[in-house]
Amino acid sequence: MYRVMENYQLNRTKEASYGHSIIPPCQAACPLHMEIGEYVDLVAQGKVMEALQVIRDGNPFPSICAYVCTHPCEDACRRRQVDEPVAIRALKRFAVEFGGDRMIELEAETTRNEKVAVVGSGPAGLACAYYLRKLGYPVTIFEAYSEPGGMLRVGIPQYRLPREVVDIEVQRLIHMGVEIKTNTRVISLDLLFDMGYKAIFITVGAHQSLRIGIEGEDSPGVIDGATFLREVNLGLKPSLGEKVGVVGGGNVAIDAARAAVRLGATKVTILYRRSRAEMPASSTEIEQALEEGVDIMFLVAPAKVRRENGRLNVACIKMELGQPDAGGRRRPVPIEGSQFNMEFDTLITAIGQAPQLSDDFRLRIGRGSTIQVDPITLTTNRQGVFAGGDAVTGPATVTQALASGRQAAFRIDDYLHHRYPLARTEPEKSPLGELSLKTIEMIRKIERLEPPLLAPQARVKEFKTVELIYDWQSAVSEARRCLRCGMGAEIVFQDKCATCLTCLRVCPYHVPYLDDSGIIQIPAEQCQACGICVAECPAKAIVLRKPYDRRHIDEELEHALKSASESKSKPLIIGFCCQYGLFGTGTLASLWREGKAGIWIVPILCVAKLEEGHILRAFEMGAEGVFIAGCGEQCSRENTAFWVLQRVERVRKTLAQIGLEPKRLQTFNLRTAEADAAEALDNFTEQIGGLYLDSIIKQEVRT
Amino acid sequence: MIVAQQKPVEEIRQLIGPYKRLLLLGCGTCVTVCGAGGEREVSLLHDALRVAQARSGDGTHSFLEYTVKRQCDFEFLELLADKVREVDAVLSLGCGIGVQVVAERFPDIPVLPGVNTSFMGMAKEWGVWDERCAACGDCRLAETAGICPITRCTKGILNGPCAGTKNGKCEANKDNDCAWILIYKRLERLQQLEKMRRYYPPRNFRVIPRPRRIVKKADVKVGEDNG
To answer: Which residue of B has its CA nearest to A617?
Structure first.
């Protein structure tokens, strides 16, 4: 049969030249610009391995980020406007654990002969080494401490990031051919150049605690947060006594307090000179510390430390908030005459950290003792020397360090190729604005599911990981909350649009509107990408921005029909099934097993995207029966069932007109693990079997 | 807008019976808006015809599909010349006007109607279309408060309501509003109820000379004392 696809192909070429997805806010906020929407959607489909693949493409150490990322993506998530942001980090952790990240082995070939030295094995150093190896360079990492990992090992406590996770990633790097020299402090860069290294990446971190600058700060019993955490993390058990005070309000202060609890301190008090609102530590960490019995005193600062009879007598002063400082936080001002005393066995100071650099490096140092670099090329004042991570930015997040390491690897590659860097100068920004109140009103509210936590009583005894992993069902449900920002519908063929207003009338979210010049607009920031208008547009002028959304049903249908044609089982039944609610939750797998032979499943990403043409094509290719199974009330979108039923009725009418029984097309509203789902399907199969026999007999009578 | 309805597939199959190669021709204007013959409907009809062919085992048609912006103007049809050469007949999903314009442009090829052109009307809501104008050529809507009794009154009477109105509905179809009650209410609202008291003489629609033609351009001659 010949079918000229000219029109079709013409459309496709036009489509292909059209730049699709808009960067969603989560991706724009991620320092690594990971394709978050993509992997969250894959988790929602229950495709964890594929999700992990997407994660690994954008992140060298996903297992580490899965534990400790501060998830700026969630802060940017627009679901926040509706209810709460999607739990992106926990979903990544789910994909990493269930997708089998531990099993992945990486190899890298040496294709270049310029050796590169990385000074420091923190996240930035490891990431830089990872990407340099992928680019084919021989890489050596120099680490001053006994174990590689930098802050991952000596800064972050085990209950937040288990050591095995770091070990696995380090082992993987070694397997890729990265040489790691521990217990090796680099004292001179000239020496490294003499050893034959052509480029050096300095990423020594910020391990030096800042001093408060009060009397008695050097007394025995006062320890700085970075040193304390390093000792704890390297397996020493500093004796703290009963009462411990922690000065500071950042993540290090919280980590130190929670570590002190686990080391047996009975009373741990954090002294912070501002209020809760100004506290830079992540709110989850603060919550968990409070659950574990840590006490936080706000608007209090230590003024003087005196050691008496083996205990510390700390003179404190109450503060109030004054004018905002340059950073926008309100400056704490001491209240006259509000001094009071507190007694501690140990006082941990954690008010900030800075890099500590050898003068012999001869690097230009800027504000806060950090290394000055060009923000695009990461080059320092010395040729061939690059720097990144906390050593450049001051204390920052693991993900920022990974991004900086990745950037360094590519800039070093440019340098060694004598290439001018083609880096973007502007940070990626999401062009998507806020959701409008009108749209928010129409979006279904779905409660955010948090991964389970270890009970506080169980946590405080040891350094076990606090956060557990989602179960399958929760992960899929949570991932389905994603609003698919930037993947919405677009009138891509304005010349075809007849301004019939169908899109405006069928949209469950009331997104399309007529502009002042009488042209239909579908604002990208409001569209929920449900696909209803795409299937209903009589002019075929609308497409979804994501190319996969435009072709997946065609591809899956073709695949199913091809497999079916190779199999002999008859009669052929095609089932279009919602991938999210059915495959995603595993219901479909059992359905498939229970179903009779001859049933071929076409997984679709929401039944609302199914068009009449797909159903007709199944019949054309020999299907005796077709059924459509949606996920029912689990659906995170509006009105999908209504529109599927509309289309089913229209196809039934057509079937009747061409002499096929309308009952050959059925819809099931399948929910999770419903026993009668299989039964209903069996009945349908039997019915189709009967119709099939009838048609065979009729044909034989005719011949 | 012209509102049409696609013919049943079995009727279309009978129409195309004698022809092997067909061009399914959509129209991107009125019939797209009323969901009878736009690009999507062309594609669905194509699918349906292929299903029918595959399932019944008879018919060996092959189809081309194409949709022009408007079938009722020759200029849009120029794009079709090459395609029309490849087929034995054109099945037009345009309105009756489109079918005729295509036939006039391509005199050597049969052009078949794929839709029944129904009326001139509006979309009441998504998926529902109502008739509004009969193209009588003598508009009296100013006298009837913008509500046409010719199309909206079952009997088309000019001096209503008749005795068959009940609770604002028509005796012929209880789902239909009585047009004259609507007219009365709207006139009342506009404070023009005196228009109800006038008598409108009956009109003889049979005297409309068909086919009608409207000439807007003036009959001028260039070069005779006028530049």
So the answer is: B47
